[in-house]
Each structure stands twice: as structure tokens, then as C-alpha cells.
């Protein structure tokens, strides 16, 4: 079943272009999002005034990315909560709250219990799920299936990018329902989304280079990941992958937080992955992140930058630059995460570890 691949994870990483393409397929027509999937919410969607996204692990980072995009497009307040924390905060829920759960398996007990809590509290529920007929999907008012295909490796990869694609489709649809985005901006966003599969193919070509890097770094004791805005969840995901697969202490930080604490961790030789926003970023975050790089470089950090192709500003300060194709700011994470997935997999492989079945982890956690 692995085909010619060394692991399911290697296969699933390579399947990411199709995972996104299949999730988008049939859902974009004439510059509009078409989601018959939402029939169960049809009457309530226009009246929703708040969204709470719940998920665990990698799915929760997809949720964070959903928040940036959906808030921007649909102008609706969104909070993202870990499923297992959700109930205990006595969340304020009402019939005009939409609780969006994200789960590859659709069986994660923590997320299922959170969905049940939301239903009992009278909120509306939508699930983003990769498994047809899963329990969470059945419990929810509506489900948008990601069509990533079965994901076997414990650490999630292709399901993650498919979840982002599904959330973005939902966000663009909701923006149309709410009348918050111009037809032109919708068209542009859909164009960006549709171009992701081809760009993912290009990112996958960096594999050999990352393999070399991972081999070279296989005795690392700790690795830090920095990102800002949508690069922040990517940093968190890069760190999670490295913990899960290579058992290396790894932390992701919001780059702006660096001076508020984490910079104390920087000592000579400390490897730091930095997810660099595009120099074309409308929020001008590029310059701020480059200045973060300079700060930690001055303290001896080894900088591994994930940056847009042709970003010359990063070159003088980075030990390694992994280029990603040009994409709109909200779409960069779909590309920037891939080198980090490959890095974790290759480093685990270099350490002789089982990348499909990391110790102590299960693919689907069906206990609370
Ligand atoms: C964890 C897995 O236990 O569950 C992660 O190790 C996954 O890879 C998380 O992201 C959530 O799983 P699911 O099926 O709810 O998306």
C-alpha cells in the first residue's frame, strides 16, 4: 500500500497536491464557492454572529489559520479552542454561535465531547472531517469533508492542508452570505486557492535538500520555530511534527514574542527555523521578521529560513534558505509547512525511528 515509498508519511506528504485539489474539486464554480454540504445549516448561516473552532493537535493549527482567513473575509469574531479545554471554560454559546470542529478521524473523543457539549448548549455545529460517516460528522448539523484520502501515518500531513483548504472555502462562502467581500477579492482568493496544488508540487522538490539538512542536524537537542501572523501556526506545527516524529524538544513561538522571553534561549549554535512572510506582505511584517532574524543571529543562532523565492533580504542572515513559491499572504502556510513536515520525517529517519508509528502516540485517540 505504500507503493514505492519508504513510509506512509513520505507517501502522504507527496499526496498533498491531490489532497488539496480533491478538497476543492466541484466546490468552485464561476468564481463562487458551492457547498451543498452546508444544507443542514442553510437557514442559520446568515444569522451566525460568532464562531468557535475546536480541535486537537495539528487540526487545531489548521483552525488557527481558519481564524485569520475567515475573520478577514467574513468579518465575524472567531476564537480557537483546544477541544479538551473548551467545556471547562464555561463557553458562552447560543443558537447564533457556530461551533466548527476539525478532525481528520472524526473520532477524537476530546473533540466529540466538545461537539456534544455545543449541541446541548444550543449552538449550531459544523464539522470539517476526513472520514466519511465518522461520529463527529454524524453528530454535527453539517459536514464539509476533506478529500485527502485515508491518512495512515500517525502524524498528520495531507489532512492538515486539506483542512485549511476546506476552512478557506467555508470562509469565502460565509463572506458571500454576509456580503463582506467584493466579487473581485473572492475571485482572487479562489484563484490563489486553486493554484496551491501546483505550487505544492514545486515545494516537494526541496525534499533532497531538506534531507541533507536533517541528516546534518540529527543530533540536535532542541529546535525552535518562529513565525508571525499566519506563519505562527506553521511554526507551532513544525515544532509539533519534530516532537512527534523525532522526539526532539521543539517549540514554536510568535516572532513578536521573542523579546518577551524566548530570546533568552538563544545560545551559539541553537537551530531556529523562521517562517518568513513575503516581502510583498500587506502588513509589512517581512521587515519585522528579518529584524528578529538579525537579533537572534547576533546571539549565534543558526538560521534556517523558509522564505519566498527571490527574497534577497533574508539571504545575508540565514545559514539556509528554503524557498517557497509566491502566494498571497493567507495562502503561504499551505506551502511553508511542507519543508517542516519533510524535515521532521527526515530527521526521524536519520535517527532510525519509525516515522509512521511514533512511540506513545495513536492515530485516533478515542479516550478523553
Ligand atoms: C493526535 C494525532 O493524537 O490527534 C495528531 O497525533 C492529530 O496527528 C490529532 O492532529 C487530532 O486528530 P484528529 O483525527 O481529530 O484530527
Automatic annotation (TrEMBL):
Asked whether the UniProt record includes Transferase among its keywords, one would answer: yes
For the biological process aspect of GO, one term held by this record is:
carbohydrate metabolic process
Where mainly found? cytoplasm
Pinpoint the SIS domain residues: 41-180, 213-358
Q: Which residue spans traverse the membrane? A: none
Entry's Gene Ontology cellular component terms = cytosol
Question: What UniProt keywords are attached to this protein's entry?
Answer: Aminotransferase, Cytoplasm, Glutamine amidotransferase, Repeat, Transferase
Entry's localization field: Cytoplasm
What Enzyme Commission number(s) appear in the record? Answer: 2.6.1.16
Tell me which residues this entry annotates as catalytic: 363 (for fru-6p isomerization activity)
The terms under GO molecular function for this entry are: carbohydrate derivative binding; glutamine-fructose-6-phosphate transaminase (isomerizing) activity
What catalytic activity does the UniProt entry give for this protein? D-fructose 6-phosphate + L-glutamine = D-glucosamine 6-phosphate + L-glutamate
Q: What is the role of this chain?
A: Catalyzes the first step in hexosamine metabolism, converting fructose-6P into glucosamine-6P using glutamine as a nitrogen source.
Question: How the protein assembles, per its UniProt entry?
Answer: Homodimer.
Designated name of the protein: Glutamine--fructose-6-phosphate aminotransferase [isomerizing]
Which lineage? Bacteria, Bacillati, Actinomycetota, Actinomycetes, Micrococcales
Amino acid at each position: 500500500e505504500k507503493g514505492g515509498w519508504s513510509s506512509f508519511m513520505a507517501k502522504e506528504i507527496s499526496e498533498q497536491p491531490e489532497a488539496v485539489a480533491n478538497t476543492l474539486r466541484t466546490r468552485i464554480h464561476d468564481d463562487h464557492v458551492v457547498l451543498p454540504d452546508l444544507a443542514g445549516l442553510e437557514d442559520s448561516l446568515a444569522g451566525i454572529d460568532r464562531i468557535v473552532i475546536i480541535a486537537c493537535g495539528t487540526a487545531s493549527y489548521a483552525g488557527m489559520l481558519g481564524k485569520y482567513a475567515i475573520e478577514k473575509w467574513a468579518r465575524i469574531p472567531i476564537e480557537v479552542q483546544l477541544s479538551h479545554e473548551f467545556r471547562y471554560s464555561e463557553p458562552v454559546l447560543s443558537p447564533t454561535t457556530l461551533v466548527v470542529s476539525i478532525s481528520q478521524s472524526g473520532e477524537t473523543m476530546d473533540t466529540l465531547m466538545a461537539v456534544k457539549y455545543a449541541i446541548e448548549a444550543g449552538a449550531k455545529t459544523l464539522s470539517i472531517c476526513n472520514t466519511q460517516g465518522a461520529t463527529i460528522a454524524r453528530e454535527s448539523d453539517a459536514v464539509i469533508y476533506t478529500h485527502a484520502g485515508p491518512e495512515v501515518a500517525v502524524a498528520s500531513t495531507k489532512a492538515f492542508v486539506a483542512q485549511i483548504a476546506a476552512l478557506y472555502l467555508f470562509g469565502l462562502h460565509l463572506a458571500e452570505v454576509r456580503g463582506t467581500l467584493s466579487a473581485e477579492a473572492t475571485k482572487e482568493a479562489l484563484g490563489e486557492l486553486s493554484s496551491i496544488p501546483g505550487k505544492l508540487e514545486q515545494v516537494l522538490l526541496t525534499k533532497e535538500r531538506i534531507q541533507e539538512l536533517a541528516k546534518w542536524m540529527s543530533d540536535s537537542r532542541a529546535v525552535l520555530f518562529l513565525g508571525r501572523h499566519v506563519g505562527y501556526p506553521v511554526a507551532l506545527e513544525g515544532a509539533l511534527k519534530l516532537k512527534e516524529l523525532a522526539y526532539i524538544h521543539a517549540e514554536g513561538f510568535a516572532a513578536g514574542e521573542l523579546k518577551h522571553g524566548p530570546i533568552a534561549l538563544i545560545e551559539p549554535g541553537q537551530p531556529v527555523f523562521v517562517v518568513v512572510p513575503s516581502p510583498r506582505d500587506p502588513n509589512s511584517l517581512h521587515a519585522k521578521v528579518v529584524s528578529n532574524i538579525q537579533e537572534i543571529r547576533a546571539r549565534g543562532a543558526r538560521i534556517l529560513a523558509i522564505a519566498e523565492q527571490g527574497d534577497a533580504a533574508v539571504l545575508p542572515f540565514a545559514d539556509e534558505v528554503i524557498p517557497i513559491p509566491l502566494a498571497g499572504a493567507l495562502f503561504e502556510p499551505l506551502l511553508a509547512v511542507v519543508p517542516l513536515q519533510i524535515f521532521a520525517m527526515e530527521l526521524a529517519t536519520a535517527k532510525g525511528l519509525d516515522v509512521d508509528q511514533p512511540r506513545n502516540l495513536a492515530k485516533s485517540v478515542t479516550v478523553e
